Amino acid sequence: MYSLAFMHFNTCHYVGSFPVLSLMVGAVVTRLVPLDETQANVTNIPGFEGLTLDQKRVLVASSMTFLVGIFQLAMGILQFGFIVVYLSDTLVSGFTTAAAVHILVSQLKFVLGLDVPGISGPLSIIYTLEKVFVQITSTNLCDLVMSIIIMVVVFIVKELNDRYKAKLPVPIPIEVIVTIIACGVSYGFNFNKIYNVDIVGEMVRGYEAPVAPNLEVLRESALEAFPTAIVGFAVAFSVAKVYSKKHDYIIDGNQELIAFGVSNIFGATFKSFAASTALSRTAVQESSGGKTQVAGLISAMMAMIVTLALGFLLEPLPRIHFIQSVLGALVIVNLKGMLMQFREIPYLWRKDTPDCVVWVVTCLSACLLGLDLGLAVGLGVELLTVIFRTQFPRCCLLANIQGTNLYRDRKDYTHIFEPKGVKIFKIPSPLFFANIEFFKEKLREAVGFNPLKILKKRNKALRKVRNLAKKSNYDITENGLWDLISTNDECSKATEELDELSNVEVIPSRWNLPASISFPRVDLHSLILDFSTVSFVDISAVKGLKLVLKEFLHIDVDVYIVSCDVYVLEKLHNCMFFDTEIQTSVFFPTLHDAVLHVLDKKNLDQRPNRLSMSTKL
């Protein structure tokens, strides 16, 4: 049912049941219709009259599946598929690895032939392993030996298929061969009676008539249905993303949501189960050469033929084989790539530590807390790493590569040229409220001084000069303060000049002052800010940027901004960034233009030998 509906709407090529999703639906079924019906949470509701326990449970599962489909279809129509952009390759890798671990743990009870109930929710893996090890002495040896033999055979044949795939016309269908052999052995040796091995038993032929979902069940399962819809889609999309990269096709998140929504709604009317992706079936289909929706159609037709006509052939099949022997072998062989993704941890740690943290946290949280909570935790950690990278970017000072108009981090090159008195500072991230203070701190570290402190010290020196000017035995001229006797007219004129300077709280750096007055000087006359990687600024950043620019201007340091994006420039205009001190003339289209302008303005004759005269080089 699912494949027929799914193939008409999807952009990925794999659909099926998923163990963790089954556990999430099963938890609702157990809560609403427990084995002890006296503890049922839904009693005396329309549609439950005259139904057996199994029929009630099927109705609850199909009704919840219907609601899951409604949620997915609604999210697809409302274009909520954009959330897939937050599923990075690292997160998907950790998430799918955790999903594979969940499958392995959930299948242990079948391999060992133990009666362990399905457990969902946080720490479900721990509780499942605990129950398995408590009952380990009750292992059914026949089930265990059969499973081991099948897994070894499938593993070997799969390896041979991979090694000789160029010579084989088609891969050896080991799954079909093992299934037929297991049926024959079970039937011939009567495993059901001799070894007490459960078999599939009688299979009902055909399909039941479509039924409507139960409204009371929809109301009771709404809280669980939404995270189930999210997890089902996230798992399917994560697996699809892995194979889309391998086979180079595009997947659309919104289209996938619509496809799963329609498939679940359509399937639920025929009492089907919530669909996501079948990792084992996906691996089998992919390794067998199935790469399009046609493979899903063929699978659906084969399942329909078996359901309608050939179901009796599967009745003697041991359940352990049917569920685990083939499936377990496929998990080990076909999902070996996903399980071996653990090898990515050392590589990520060496190359990108934040990504490694995302991988480990996503995998561990998905394993321990469940895929729904684990996915939320992984997304949270991933967003935190993005905030960390943008809030604390790697700022640097740039220098010119000799003979070119290129400017790079001066730490990375040896043959560089830096004009005297010029600093070129680059911040490789947007400027916003969270990192504007970091920007100021790094800028001060780069230039080697705090302009605000320099300004305060100079103003302090200015006040001392004004006090000295009031004494008759001091004279102030443009060249400085001298301990000389001068006329009253000259002293008055100099005092008026100081009064004018005090209004802007600056003092000319050319003045010569007595030793008793400390006037800090800086060896920087021009500061160039490279905004080529600043994609946006907010109001807080505009205010902070304006403040820090004025601090430098007040100590006679010219500030220029280069390669500013047009939208950033528009934002600065809208936020009243420009005034009489900061004008649009400080903006330059390229870094090289700004450097040439500074050299011309300061009459630094260094360009012929060190810098190119034009930006065309």
UniProtKB/TrEMBL annotation:
<feature type="transmembrane region" description="Helical">
    <location>
        <begin position="66"/>
        <end position="87"/>
    </location>
</feature>
<dbReference type="InterPro" id="IPR002645">
    <property type="entry name" value="STAS_dom"/>
</dbReference>
<feature type="domain" description="STAS">
    <location>
        <begin position="412"/>
        <end position="598"/>
    </location>
</feature>
<keyword id="KW-0812">Transmembrane</keyword>
<dbReference type="InterPro" id="IPR011547">
    <property type="entry name" value="SLC26A/SulP_dom"/>
</dbReference>
<dbReference type="GO" id="GO:0016020">
    <property type="term" value="C:membrane"/>
</dbReference>
<protein>
    <submittedName>
        <fullName>Chloride anion exchanger</fullName>
    </submittedName>
</protein>
<dbReference type="Pfam" id="PF00916">
    <property type="entry name" value="Sulfate_transp"/>
</dbReference>
<keyword id="KW-1133">Transmembrane helix</keyword>
<feature type="transmembrane region" description="Helical">
    <location>
        <begin position="359"/>
        <end position="384"/>
    </location>
</feature>
<dbReference type="InterPro" id="IPR036513">
    <property type="entry name" value="STAS_dom_sf"/>
</dbReference>
<keyword id="KW-0472">Membrane</keyword>
<feature type="transmembrane region" description="Helical">
    <location>
        <begin position="132"/>
        <end position="156"/>
    </location>
</feature>
<dbReference type="GO" id="GO:0055085">
    <property type="term" value="P:transmembrane transport"/>
</dbReference>
<feature type="transmembrane region" description="Helical">
    <location>
        <begin position="225"/>
        <end position="244"/>
    </location>
</feature>
<feature type="transmembrane region" description="Helical">
    <location>
        <begin position="12"/>
        <end position="33"/>
    </location>
</feature>
<feature type="transmembrane region" description="Helical">
    <location>
        <begin position="94"/>
        <end position="112"/>
    </location>
</feature>
<feature type="transmembrane region" description="Helical">
    <location>
        <begin position="256"/>
        <end position="274"/>
    </location>
</feature>
<feature type="transmembrane region" description="Helical">
    <location>
        <begin position="321"/>
        <end position="339"/>
    </location>
</feature>
<feature type="transmembrane region" description="Helical">
    <location>
        <begin position="168"/>
        <end position="189"/>
    </location>
</feature>
<dbReference type="Pfam" id="PF01740">
    <property type="entry name" value="STAS"/>
</dbReference>
<dbReference type="InterPro" id="IPR001902">
    <property type="entry name" value="SLC26A/SulP_fam"/>
</dbReference>
<feature type="transmembrane region" description="Helical">
    <location>
        <begin position="294"/>
        <end position="314"/>
    </location>
</feature>
